[in-house]
Automatic annotation (TrEMBL):
This is Leucine rich repeat neuronal 2. Keywords: Disulfide bond, Leucine-rich repeat, Repeat, Signal. InterPro entries: Dev_Immune_Receptor (IPR050328), Ig-like_dom (IPR007110), Ig-like_dom_sf (IPR036179), Ig-like_fold (IPR013783), Ig_I-set (IPR013098), Ig_sub (IPR003599), Ig_sub2 (IPR003598), Leu-rich_rpt (IPR001611). Residues 426-515 form the Ig-like domain. PANTHER family: LEUCINE-RICH REPEAT NEURONAL PROTEIN 1, SLIT RELATED LEUCINE-RICH REPEAT NEURONAL PROTEIN. It comes from the Eukaryota. Residues 1-20 form the signal peptide. It holds the Pfam family I-set. GO terms for cellular component: extracellular matrix; extracellular space. It comes from Sinocyclocheilus rhinocerous.
Length: 691
């Protein structure tokens, strides 16, 4: 191509035509058919050989048949967008050098009306955008040189097995956007040299085993916009020379890894726009020539798991963008990607990219992270550190921190290493799973819970029965996989209820809950039955109050809020989520002798409030009776608890974990308090020494 471009440039300069590389036509003085334009025009063969072709252009003329007296020297005949429904060989008689015939966007309904039986020089035939419904046996016989055949955007429903007989030089075949429901291997027996096959946009839902076996020269295969749900292990067998494949916009729910292993020469792989939720260990491995991989526009994609990509020695560009739910890339997702230069991760739901991920890519040159909800804490700290091998940020001007609040809207690149915390809380992205799902009796369910943090968090699930399930454990129909996915196999009404995933490390924890409704199971009452006056104070002491209520509805959004009216400027409003099914709550850490307003919110229009006043302290009470049980509880809390240092002398954040795992009814957190340092000692000083 380089040579051609230079050649063209010279021609242009000689002709004195503008400075751009727009290819110009030259006059061709022949008797030209009425209304058509005859010119010498640049032309490229399907193999990119350049020619100056005598061209007759009769596009858009409402012709119902071919014009008469076409010049004998014609090489390119353009009849696009007319009303032609038949052509006879006699109309093309004598055009021995005709190389391209464009009949696209006309009125052909059958190739029986395309009676061209002897065009020995024809390389390119355009029949796209007609109304062909069926292709019979040997439909294009008599075109022995044909290299390029366009049949896309017709209404083809059926194609005879021997349709392409005689086309043994064909290089490109466009069958996309028709109404085919199967791909028949027999079509391809006549096409030993085919290099490009476009067959997307047909309602085909499976590729049969060995479907493309005869196409051993094929280099590019486009299977976009079909209904493909899975690709069987042997579907792509025989495509020894395939370099590029596109599965864009199908219904694949997992990476067809076994089928891809049968493509030894694959360089470009497009899996964009498929409902794949997880890219799992081993999904892309040992593909020795893969250069570029696209995993974009996936509405369902949540996570790129440990060793998802392994030993792809020639992979240079990885594009994982515009995936609205993608919040997790395992720190060791990429293994042995020694040539990877360009990592595109913009427009996802990523809160961070682990430094380990970046360090695992020795050739990395550029990275794109903009339009992600980046949390500017320890996980992204490597950006501001003095790295020995700097990585270029694409669009650093629009790569912002979205958390913590004090760094919000700052550019990630401009936040210094010191400004970012050196350990960080787990974060379960809101996009990981919805807060409510409805399933059918007998369905298999997988709920994926992932969290990035430093130190690496552990994950577990609390199921409606109150049982805590850690990874690699199972219980009844439940199973928690190592990565944090909760699986329920064959769900029944018994599994309906409230689920919580907890991700915790030494710094704190994050939780995310969901209500599972099983169709045909106990119906969730949707009629707004108010909790009414049933919300009441059962017991009040100096520092705690026990509240109870009737839970008529099992709603996922319930929470409890409380506020003391000690002084007007000191209105610290606290709030905590309540597990569905809970009917009482022990409100602890209250101030003695204080008036509180406590409200239970069971939905947008359903709030009940009570007022209470805690008891005055009668006697100085250093610490509650330090029975062994209490000591044990306190030490457990110390382990699960850490406080952020006083920031500028007036604030610190405290994260609490549930205090009693065994009794979900007094689930307490996690809760976040912003307190002044002075309040710290008053509230927690004696109990929790500075860490
Ligand atoms: C066809 O092409 C050949 C080779 O370029 C040329 O010699 C011949 O004159 C052409 N025939 C017509 C009818 O233009
Ligand atoms: C707090 O509430 C009590 C009881 O309603 C009321 O008597 C008192 O005035 C309130 N104090 C403030 C500061 O609002
Ligand atoms: C409520 O919490 C307090 C303080 O942790 C504790 O002393 C009390 O026993 C609890 N009450 C109930 C009923 O659990
Ligand atoms: C809540 O009340 C408002 C106003 O009375 C009403 O428009 C709305 O539909 C109610 N929402 C629910 C969920 O009942």
């Amino acid at each position: 191509m380089g040579k051609i471009a230079i050649f063209l440039l010279h021609t242009h300069l000689l002709l004195g035509v503008g400075s751009s590389l727009v290819i110009q036509s030259m006059p061709w003085r022949v008797p030209c058919p009425h209304q058509c334009v005859c010119q010498i025009k640049p032309w490229y063969s399907p193999q990119s050989v350049y020619r100056e072709a005598p061209t007759v252009d009769c596009n858009d003329l409402l012709l119902i048949q071919l014009p008469t007296s076409l010049p004998q020297e014609t090489q390119t005949l353009r009849l696009q967008s007319n009303l032609i429904s038949s052509v006879d060989q006699s109309e093309l008689q004598g055009l021995v050098n005709l190389t391209e015939l464009d009949l696209s966007h006309n009125s052909f309904t059958s190739t029986r009306n395309l009676r061209i039986t002897g065009l020995p020089a024809l390389l390119s035939l355009h029949m796209e955008e007609n109304q062909l419904r069926h292709l019979p046996e040997a439909a294009f016989f008599g075109l022995p040189s044909l290299q390029e055949l366009y049949l896309n955007h017709n209404r083809l429903r059926s194609i005879s097995p021997g349709v392409f007989k005689g086309l043994d030089k064909l290089l490109r075949l466009h069958l996309n956007s028709n109404r085919l429901v199967v791909i028949d291997r027999r079509w391809f027996h006549a096409l030993p040299q085919l290099e490009v096959l476009m067959i997307g946009g047909n309602p085909v839902d499976t590729v049969q085993d060995l479907n493309f076996k005869p196409l051993s020269c094929l280099r590019s295969l486009v299977l976009a916009g079909m209904g493909l749900r899975e690709i069987s292990e042997r579907a792509l067998e025989g495509l020894q020379n395939l370099e590029s494949i596109s599965f864009y916009d199908n219904h694949l729910i997992k990476v067809p890894k076994e089928a891809l292993q049968k493509l030894p020469g694959l360089k470009f792989l497009d899996l964009n726009k498929n409902p794949i939720q997880l890219v799992q260990r081993g999904d892309f491995q040992n593909m020795l020539h893969l250069k570029e991989l696209g995993l974009n526009n996936m509405e369902e994609l949540i996570s790129i798991e440990h060793s998802a990509m392994e030993n792809l020695p020639e992979l240079t560009k990885l594009e994982i963008t515009n995936n609205p739910r993608l919040s997790y890339i395992h720190p060791q997702a990429f293994q042995k990607l020694l040539s990877m230069e360009s990592l595109m991760l913009n427009s996802n739901a990523l809160s961070a990219l682990h430094s380990q991920t970046v360090r695992s890519l020795p050739s990395l040159q550029e990275i794109s992270l903009h339009t992600n909800p980046i949390r500017c804490d320890c996980l992204i700290r490597w950006v501001g550190a003095d790295n020995d091998k700097p990585v270029r940020f694409i669009e650093p001007q629009s790569t912002f921190c979205s958390e913590p609040p004090e760094l919000k809207a700052r550019r990630v690149k401009e936040v210094s290493f010191r400004e970012m915390a050196d350990s960080c809380l787990p974060l379960i992205a809101p996009s990981t799973f919805p807060s409510y799902i409805e399933v059918k009796h007998g369905d298999n369910i997988a709920l994926h819970c992932r969290a990035l943090a430093e130190p690496e968090p552990s994950i577990y699930w609390v199921i409606p029965q109150g049982v805590r399930l850690t990874p690699s454990s199972s219980y009844g129909r439940y199973q928690v996989l190592t990565e944090g996915t909760l699986e329920i196999l064959g769900v029944t009404a018994e599994e309906a209820g409230f689920y919580t995933c907890v991700a915790q490390n030494l710094v704190g924890a994050d939780t995310r809950s969901l209500t599972l409704h099983v169709e045909g199971g106990d119906l969730v009452h949707t009629n707004t039955q108010k909790t009414e006056d049933s919300f009441e104070v059962q017991d009040v002491k100096e520092r705690y109050a026990l509240l109870t209520w009737q839970a008529n509805r099992n709603i996922p959004t319930a929470h409890l809020s409380w506020v003391a009216n000690v002084s007007l400027e000191d209105h610290h409003r606290h709030s905590t989520r309540i597990l569905a099914g809970t009917r009482r709550f022990n409100l602890t850490r209250l101030q003695p002798g204080t008036h509180y307003k406590v409200c239970l919110h069971m939905g947008p229009n359903d709030t009940s409030c009570v007022h209470l006043r805690t008891k005055e302290v009668s006697m100085p009470d250093p610490l509650p009776d330090l029975t062994p049980a209490v000591l044990l509880a306190v030490s457990a809390l110390l382990l699960l608890f850490a406080a952020r240092a006083c920031n500028g002398g007036h604030k610190r954040k405290i994260f609490f974990l549930p205090q009693k795992w065994t009794d979900l009814y007094i689930w307490q957190g996690p809760q976040t308090y912003d307190l002044k340092c002075s309040e710290w000692d008053e509230h927690f000083g004696p109990l929790f020494p500075e860490i």
